[in-house]
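Quick entry between incubations.
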Amino acid sequence: EVQLLESGGGSVQPGGSLRLSCAASEFTFSNYGMSWVRQAPGKGLEWVSGISGSGGATYYADSVKGRFTISRDNSMNTVYLQMNTLRAEDTAVYYCARYDYPRAFEYWGQGTLVTVSS
Amino acid sequence: EIVMTQSPATLSVSPGERATLSCRASQSVSSNLAWYQRKPGQAPRLLIYGASTRATGIPARFSGSGSGTEFTLTISGLQSEDFAVYYCQQYDNWPPYTFGQGTKLEIK
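Done. Structure below.
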């Protein structure tokens, strides 16, 4: 069964950095685009960033463009989200999700909590 | 950016009855529309993709319809485990993929 396991969340002060990881298993990782989706407390789901299967194309929401960087290591079956210049409004549970047209985001990890607070 | 609007924000329905949730897109998304179920402490669960196709393992009481800008998720014979928050999401025109704000389905 497809598994996605996020790690790297934690508490950080405004302006700080964190790197999230998502380890994938039980599927051919390089065949699929991957995304990060977050949910802030009391808010809905927000797509944050995506990357193609090869890693050659990356995409970002305007709210994180220039601050976050998505990358992947297909030899390690892992996708990363480097988050810099963090703000209070970045506080959320971050999920990685596998994208596959037309099934959209069929598989999700359990999420990792990022708290940005002084 | 395509804006997805869900209605109502909260829907109160009795177990065994039918729930109808709506989702509207600010411009056509063809049939590139998915529905997700979200329960506290759990990852989102894909219910419907392609506007009307049930994902693997999703019970037949869940059905989706619509195309273009108007979509509906219908849950027939509500069971206790169905009370949750439901999100629609378009994947026709991206980035960004956009979600609706959610409909909370609660027990009446």
